[in-house]
Design brief:
With 300 residues, the chain is an alpha/beta fold. The protein is 41% helix and 15% strand. Helix 1 packs across helix 6, helix 3 runs parallel beside helix 4 and helix 5 packs across helix 8. The two termini are 34 Å apart.
């Protein structure tokens, strides 16, 4: 297939690129060539690229900054996917849109199923929900993939931040009353390749069998404090010299942020297993792999 892949400078797009390139003809334009902040220009670019499939992990992801840049967040996360989805629907081209746990309010005690009511608490979450709605309402073959707590050996993310801070501080104070499943970009990418291979040659039918919506994370549950502790322990066991000797649990109120985060970000993975036959590895297993990759990269 001729696949348009956005956001290859980001974590998920960057993890997808080499896996897709080994199997398909991939168009991976830089931001300057395919600027999601200018959705009016995207249909012309799509006419030029003529993809058989659009995969859009690109997004405005600065959660706190979005509270002050709501208009830009809604353009990139809402209007740009709408423009792509409209183009795709007119031509019967399938589209995959990546989304987030932030579309939920986090108040449920259980795991969030795909069809649970949404209720974003932040501009970022609302803008991503707008993107989901736009892709769905365009009426073409589509698949929205929600994920959560994404990190990788490269880029700006929680794992790398914890290791950097642990080199500087004796103690880390980390929120312990927000829960989710830490998820590597590598898990998302490998699972998506499996989804795609199982769906071919009938992408439209396969996406429809998933009702156009899937949750995809690593399995298991952790608080941010649990995750930080596992990162520190794993880093030390790999010979990374750290100053931190203690990870102290705190409550959300002790670490105020401009945007409100969901207290419960656990996404149900039953549909992923039943429809796609995929059981992602435990977050601890994925973390070990990502720490190994971090070391191999020279901790850069």
């Amino acid at each position: 297939m001729r696949i348009l892949l956005t956001g290859t400078a980001g974590q998920v797009g960057g993890a997808l690129l080499p896996l897709l390139q080994g199997r398909h003809d991939v168009i991976a334009p830089a931001r300057a060539q395919f600027d999601l902040s200018k959705p009016e220009a995207l249909p012309g670019k799509l006419d030029e690229f003529r993809p058989d499939l659009i995969v859009n992990p690109a997004a405005y992801t600065s959660v706190d900054k979005a509270e002050d840049e709501a208009a830009l967040a809604f353009v990139v996360n809402g209007k740009a996917p709408a423009a792509m989805a409209a183009w795709a629907a007119e031509r019967g081209v399938p589209m995959v849109q990546f989304s987030t746990d932030y579309v939920f309010d986090g108040k449920s005690r259980g795991v969030w199923r795909e069809d649970d009511p949404t209720g974003p608490l932040s501009v970022y979450g609302a803008s991503k929900l707008a993107g989901e709605a736009a892709v769905r309402s365009a009426g073409g073959p589509h698949l929205v993939i929600r994920t959560a707590w994404v990190y990788a050996a490269q880029g700006a993310n929680f794992m790398r931040t914890m290791i950097r801070l642990a080199k500087e501080r004796d103690t880390l104070r980390v929120v312990a009353d927000q829960f989710g499943a830490p998820t590597t970009a590598a898990t998302i990418a490998s699972s998506f390749i499996e989804i795609l291979e199982r769906a071919e040659p009938d992408l439209s039918g396969s996406f429809a069998r998933a009702n156009g919506l899937l949750h995809l994370t690593n399995s298991g549950s952790a608080s941010w404090c649990d995750f930080a502790g596992a990162i520190i322990t794993g880093a030390q066991s790999r010979g990374i010299l750290l100053k931190t000797t203690e990870v102290v649990p705190i409550v959300t109120a002790e670490y105020p942020t401009k945007a409100i985060r969901p207290a419960n970000s656990l996404l149900d993975l039953q549909r992923l297993e039943e429809v796609c036959g995929i059981k992602p590895p435990a977050w601890q297993t994925a973390l070990a792999d990502e720490l190994d990759a971090y070391v191999l990269r020279g901790q850069s």
